[in-house]
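Dear colleague,

Following up on Tuesday's group meeting, I ran the structure prediction for the two-component complex that the binding team flagged. I've pasted the input sequences exactly as they went in, so you can double-check that nothing got truncated or mislabelled along the way. The structure tokens for the whole assembly follow below. Feel free to forward this to whoever is handling the docking comparison.

Inputs:
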Amino acid sequence: GAGVSQTPSNKVTEKGKYVELRCDPISGHTALYWYRQSLGQGPEFLIYFQGTGAADDSGLPNDRFFAVRPEGSVSTLKIQRTERGDSAVYLCASSLWGTSGTLDTQYFGPGTRLTVL
Amino acid sequence: GENVEQHPSTLSVQEGDSAVIKCTYSDSASNYFPWYKQELGKGPQLIIDIRSNVGEKKDQRIAVTLNKTAKHFSLHITETQPEDSAVYFCAATHSGYSTLTFGKGTMLLVSP
């Protein structure tokens, strides 16, 4: 079956611009996660959705970062006033339940490589 | 919060040798430990995971061991092949918290 897909695969933007990154989770998966991966590092948690609501956004670095999942499926990560330090690979993952008390597998997409010039 | 340390950062082996990657975690409440393989330009792919109610799990050439007392877990790959070359990440979480904390990764290079 289809896995997690992310678009675009690459995004180059200029400092100060606004960007949107899209994630299509595996069909039927309730939980959706955004991670950020800098060069040579492991993925770092940004935000987690359970259905339409953000269950945990403690990993968002500042208020320039925002994410939505209005219908409980596709999610968009939005970054305002981009800075060079935002350059990284943004990974999306989904899991079947993701609720507290379960330990279901997270399946990752290929990521969006964001470069801020 | 949870902190995961992973060693070594790079590992070079000859084809057919075994490879071992080790991770330690800080949160004694963690009870789920997945391992991901990431190839260049791709997202992490789950290769094996272990829950805290077992000490070892095997899947063909791959095995994972867990020592809850010492708070460390290890990935063992036997009979390595060139296609095993990739970056491997360990991670940890617990049932009261759904997001994963990752180690910094190990670049495994298997030479023919």
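Chain A touches chain B through 30 residues (CB under 8 Å).

Cheers,
M.
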